[in-house]
Known about the structure:
Elements: H1 6-23, H2 31-47, H3 51-65, H4 71-85, H5 91-99
Helix pairs in contact: 1-2, 2-3, 2-4
Amino acid sequence: MNLNQPRTALTHYESIPAAHRAEGYNTQAYPRAAALRHARTAEAHIAVGDLDGALENAHQAIDHLGGVTSVRGTSTLTELRTRLDAHRSTPAVRDFLARTA
Length: 101
């Protein structure tokens, strides 16, 4: 995303779970890493105008962050909420923002 290529970012982010499964990586053991990946994937979906994909990943990010204390996780969530706030008129976005308030 730092290169302003959200479609390329999506391709890479969405290939990570399959690579993890192939390597036997246990995402449950690293919930913060999974949350950060979902948050970044959500940001890429926002950048290409896919709010449904963004919200699906945003909710998964929150689910993974539950019980995890992380400055990086908190700042990433704050950034994601800021990006979604531009779409506050969409009911599902309002629901997500309320869930994470």
